[in-house]
Inverse folding.
């Protein structure tokens, strides 16, 4: 069996994926629930869902960061990589304080994976552990075939990640830039949001590029510079 440190298969936790670096918008209740679960004073099983780019992976990794800071054992399991390993990857995880499983919809309808997840769920319950799961749809829309697995998911507290408005996306974008030590004025931020796909993950990726290029060129972030670098 692989060690828990190997479970991320080189993906690891992103340094910036913390609660403090997440723009709340209308997700304060979800974030509070996640923090409480990490601390062991909240729900033992949380399931939250959202479409791509809404921050599910960020929040799940933030849970792991918070657990590690609290000297608790935690693991992040990205099922976007499930083809690279076998269902046995779940074995022994119940020994940890917190298990975070990302993109569970990707194993729905796969009997071996569903059964392995069911057994893990039962073992975590018996061990008084905590489990946080993400997906892109509500539990009943997952397409889970195993009835017992569906019944377990029905016990979870379910949240939907609320998308940001355009104004909130701009605030989040400027906040992330400031925390990187970048000066991004509102006009430049609006220009980027107008001309780039509005998924936050895409916008933050663009910010990474701009950060590196502005440092290399010793240039401020202006609209002409952004147009040149992002080719928009």
């Amino acid at each position: 069996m692989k060690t828990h440190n190997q479970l991320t298969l080189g993906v690891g936790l992103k340094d910036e994926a913390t609660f403090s670096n997440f723009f709340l918008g209308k997700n304060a209740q979800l974030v509070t629930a996640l923090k409480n679960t990490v601390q062991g004073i909240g729900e033992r099983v949380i399931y939250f869902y959202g479409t791509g780019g809404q921050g599910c992976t960020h929040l799940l990794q933030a849970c792991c960061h918070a657990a590690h800071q609290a000297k608790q054992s935690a693991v992040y399991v990205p099922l976007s990589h499930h083809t690279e390993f076998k269902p046995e990857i779940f074995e022994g995880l119940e020994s940890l304080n917190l298990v975070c499983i990302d993109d569970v919809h990707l194993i729905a309808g796969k009997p071996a994976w569903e059964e392995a997840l069911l057994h893990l769920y039962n073992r975590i319950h018996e061990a008084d552990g905590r489990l946080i799961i993400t997906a892109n749809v509500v539990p009943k829309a997952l397409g889970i075939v195993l009835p017992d697995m569906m019944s377990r998911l029905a016990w979870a507290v379910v949240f939907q990640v609320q998308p940001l408005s355009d104004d909130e996306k701009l605030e989040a974008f400027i906040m992330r830039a400031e925390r990187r030590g970048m000066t991004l004025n509102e006009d430049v931020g609006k220009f980027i949001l107008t001309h780039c796909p509005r998924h936050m993950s895409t916008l933050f990726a663009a910010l990474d590029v701009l950060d590196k290029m502005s440092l290399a060129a010793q240039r401020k972030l202006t609209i002409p510079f952004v147009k040149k670098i992002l080719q928009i």
Observations:
- The CA atoms of residues 94 and 124 lie 5 Å apart.
- The chain has eight helices and five strands.
